[in-house]
Amino acid sequence: MKISLVKNNRMLTAFTLLALTVVLVLGITSLREDTADANGSNGGFRQSVAGTYLVLEEGTKTFFLLTFTEDGNFWALPSAGSLFGFTNHHGTWERRDKPRIIVRSIVFSLDTDKKTAAPVDVGWDLTFANEVDGKFQNVSGTISVKVFAPGQNPLTSTAEPVDKFSDTLKDGQRVTVE
Predict the structure, then answer these.
(1) Residue 98 burial by CB count (10 A; 0-12/13-18/19+): exposed, middle or buried?
(2) Which residues in the chain come in under a pLDDT of 70?
(3) How far is residue 171 from each of residues 27, 62, 120, 126, 166, measured CA to CA in Å?
(4) How far apart are CA 150 and CA 77, in angstroms?
(5) Which of the residues 49, 61, 120, 158 has the least number of beta carbons within 10 Å of its own beta carbon?
(6) Residue 11 to residues 1, 6, 28, 58: CA-CA distances in angstroms?
(7) d(C-alpha 54, C-alpha 62), whole Å
(8) Contact 75, 88 (CB under 8 A)
């Protein structure tokens, strides 16, 4: 009976060690994939997105230059920003699912007298397409714009927008060197 108990304990110990090893290996593999995607190494999603794209805003028939960095920063330069009284966009982006990201940027809307600026919170929902050599070539999506009163902080939960509108972005192409 004693030999049987020792044998069972050894089998239980071996099984426990095997199970822990499997969990550890799976955890490390999962961590590597997350880390690679988060820092853009190993051909990750962030590297596929990073770059500058020329995108048409459908409603206004104007363009944006959208720039995405691997570390999650975002800039947008509106072609008609000065006509509509908007400054450039600065913000951050994150992956929702391949090939979709969301972006949040802040921009300022200048009054006609250019003495006051209202903060504007812009949400972008973008989908990338046509991956060539690890880089997406096209982007499209929507923007949702919330305009706040001058002096109001759009990042607080109590801020109420004074105006809202949205538009469609289409035909976005990666800017490349020829």
Answers:
(1) middle
(2) 1-43, 114
(3) 40, 12, 25, 12, 17
(4) 22
(5) 158
(6) 15, 9, 26, 67
(7) 10
(8) yes
Q: Which three-class secondary structure state does DSSP give residue 85?
A: coil
Q: Which amino acid is at 106?
A: I
- Contact between residue 101 and residue 126 where contact means Cβ atoms under 8 Å apart: yes
Buried-exposed string 57-93: b where 16+ CB fall within 10 A, e elsewhere: beeeebbbebbbebebebbbebeebeeeebbebebeb
CA dihedral 20, 21, 24, 29 (to 10 degrees): -150
Joined tokens for residue 55: 């995108």
| Residue entry with tokens 């006609």 | 112
pLDDT tens digits along 107-152: 999 887 767 899 999 999 999 999 999 999 999 999 999 999 999 9
Tokens of 18: 């095997």
Global confidence as pTM = 0.74
Give, as one character, the DSSP assignment of residue 82: H
Map 124-150 to HEC letters.
EEEEEEEEECCEEEEEEEEEEEEECCC
CATH number at 48-174: 2.40.128
